[in-house]
Design a protein that fits this description.
Four copies of one chain form a homotetramer. Chain A is an alpha+beta fold and about 150 residues long. The first copy, chain A, is built from three helices and six strands. Chains A and B meet through helix 1, helix 2, helix 3 and strand 3 of A and helix 1, helix 2, helix 3 and strand 3 of B.
């Protein structure tokens, strides 16, 4: 991971208002990997007291993008073009831990997998898994905006 | 749409803390359809000023669930088991409008499509499209909790 | 649709051994659309007498690629980077009809939807629906091979 | 794996005409796992000489269903309700090896992942990865047909 890639990964995590608002924080960053943690609050839930699928999707997508950003050249950025998430079990507990890992790093397209675990009474269980397809695009603001 | 189905659809929308916190509001509800609106704020954005994919995924999933809930029997509830979303264009503007429509209503599984449109300067553009698979399960709290 | 795009769409359909072997034939080709037909035989079925999901996926993907190819510039080709298919009902009958339509045509990525219908006793029913993401790449053999 | 589950897994593999026609053969079967092999022929290819996405999707789906069937009770069967596949690299070589593994085995829904590898000159490379959602339904012919 170059320091440029690291910069872009940090920019994604620190610079996204929705992610700050949600409360997601970075746990660790590696070569094609990223781990994030979300301390659960009442506002993250759906109508039956479980973590909303949208919360799980948000952190799965964002952690995947950050993992993907660790493997791109300077001046480039990642953009989610699609993702799919399977919600395997009702999610509840003290916090969510999301681990993302690049499955395939390409020149213009990368594919990343994210696993979301719920931690309840210190026990961790896989609650959802996502596959995220990223486009590698010119970094916005550095060059003229590119559309995929 | 029975009044029971309507009740369940309203319960989903009004009773989910994450949806209230996001600011999503109901526009209309029909037989197997639902339309919601989100007035965009800075906190909904990602690092480059576009609406975060997680926001789009959340409203696509939730509006789909509400549409699906209009077609289920009394005492049942819907649970997202998986969804896939394609992010077609960078999303920005004053608000998002999400229209969900049931593609296939089954006894135990339903499939719903959601289209998310961004409204900018009064002009509406399709920004993402999702396919959501719902399990039809016993309504939590009414009977013992069922796990799919 | 330029005649070049039409050429590429025909090349895809006529030039793919697996598609010829399957028996898929072109019904019509338009601007961003394609319709194909498969006359069903016993060899297309799974263990319970329904059309195999793999047959439906193959024609959904291929018809989508052909629809996408009608909107690309000369010298370019399409390549499926991912797709998702929902199998809505058991499929059986005399033939399958697949209609694909481009949802979003981009410079480097296009998104196409395919609907697969089964025709049984003259009655047509939607049996599956797919969303296909295509990369727009240099046409193989015309320039050096590009990897996405 | 009970011998009943093993029976159902074998029935799926041996009893599906499309799978026999394709040439897919069983390599091994475990508790929630299945490995299959396809010796590649010219008829499995697309227009540019690579293995058709439909072939990869077919074996990913079918191997996933077989893996899922190893974990179900007697009298039940699996039915794919949806799957998503990412095509990571152009696939070519002597054969494909597909390894499926159950991610979550539920009472009514299971989720299975399949990895497809291409073997070229004895070297194995991951070419696609799929996530398959299965419904667990009454076994057709044993009880009245159930529709999900």
């Amino acid at each position: 991971m170059t320091s440029t890639a690291h910069d872009e990964a940090r920019r994604i995590l620190d610079g996204a208002p929705f992610i700050r608002d949600l409360g997601l924080r970075l746990e660790s960053l590696g070569e094609g990997t990223c781990t994030t943690v979300l301390d659960l609050e009442e506002r993250h839930l759906q109508q039956d007291g479980f973590v909303h699928a949208g919360v799980q999707a948000t952190i799965a997508d964002h952690t995947a993008g950050t993992a993907g950003a660790t493997l791109i050249p300077a001046g480039r950025a990642v953009l989610s073009i699609e993702f799919k998430i399977n919600l395997l079990r009702p999610a509840r507990g003290e916090r969510l831990v999301c681990r993302a890992k690049v499955l395939r790093a390409g020149k213009s397209v990368s594919v990343v997998e994210s696993e979301v675990h719920a931690v309840e009474d210190g026990r961790e269980r896989l609650v959802s898994k996502a596959t995220v397809t990223l486009a590698i695009v010119p970094r916005p603001g550095k060059t003229k905006e590119g559309s995929a």
